[in-house]
Amino acid sequence: MNSDYTIEMFYDGDCPLCMRETQFIRKLDHGGRIRFTNIAASDFDPVPLGKTHDNLMAEIHGRLPDGQWLTGVEVFRRLYDCIGFGPLVLLTRLPLVRQLLNVGYRFFAKNRLQLTGRCSENCSITPA
Q1: Residue 91 carries which DSSP code?
Q2: I need a labelling partner for 73 at 20 to 30 A (CA). Which of 12, 50, 80, 94 fits?
Q3: How far is residue 82's CA from residue 56's CA, in Å, rounded to a whole number?
Q4: Are 108 and 115 in contact (CB under 8 A)?
Q5: Does the pLDDT value for residue 114 go beyond 50?
Q6: Rounded Cα gap, residues 29 and 106, in angstroms
Q7: What is the largest CA-CA distance in the chain?
Q8: Main-chain phi, psi angles of 65, to 5 degrees
Q9: What distance in Å separates the CA atoms of residue 56 and residue 54, rounded to the nearest whole number?
C-alpha cells in the first residue's frame, strides 16, 4: 500500500474545464496529498489499472492508496477535503444538495465533450 498521497485523481487533460479545475486543485494542494494522472497523455495506459480509456473518460475517477476506486461527485468531495474545504464538503453531503450535485455532474460528464466544444456529432459519453 502506497501512502504518499491521499487520493489519485484521474483527469482528462484535453478538457478545458477539467484542466481549469485540476489547476485550481493542484495550486491548493500544499501538502502534496493528491496524485494527478492525466488520462489524455499519450503515454497513459489504463490496462494496468483494470480500466478502459472509455470507462475513465465517462466520469471522473479517483483511487485511494488501498486501491479502492471512487467516481463522480465523491471524487470531488475527497479532493476538496484534501485542499482544506472540509466545511463545503459537509454541505455537499446534505440529502437535497447531494442529489442535485449528482444529477448535475452526471449531465456534465455525459455531455462534456459537446459542452467544451470538443466534438461535432454524437458527443454523448456513455459510461462503460
Answers
A1: H
A2: 50
A3: 22
A4: yes
A5: yes
A6: 26
A7: 43
A8: -55, -25
A9: 5
Arithmetic mean of pLDDT over the chain: 90
Quickly count: other Cβ atoms within 10 Å of residue 39's Cβ.
22
CATH classification code of 7-115 = 3.40.30
Instruction: Kindly list the domain boundaries of the chain, sorted by start residue.
Output: 7-115
Residue 73: band (very low, low, confident or very high) from pLDDT cuts 50, 70, 90 = very high
The closest alpha carbon to 76, from 95, 89, 64, 57, belongs to 89
Residue 107 CA to its chain's centroid (Å): 14
Locus of grid cell 479545475? 21
* Contact (Cβ atoms closer than 8 angstroms) between residue 92 and residue 101: yes
Mean of pLDDT values over 52-63: 94
Record the cell numbers describing residue 62, joined without a space: 479517483
CA distance 128 to 21: 24
Percent of the chain at pLDDT > 70 equals: 90
CB 10 within 8 A of CB 39: yes
Q: Which three cell numbers stand for residue 111?
A: 455531455
Q: What is the DSSP letter of 120?
A: S
What is the rounded average pLDDT of the residues 82-100?
Answer: 96
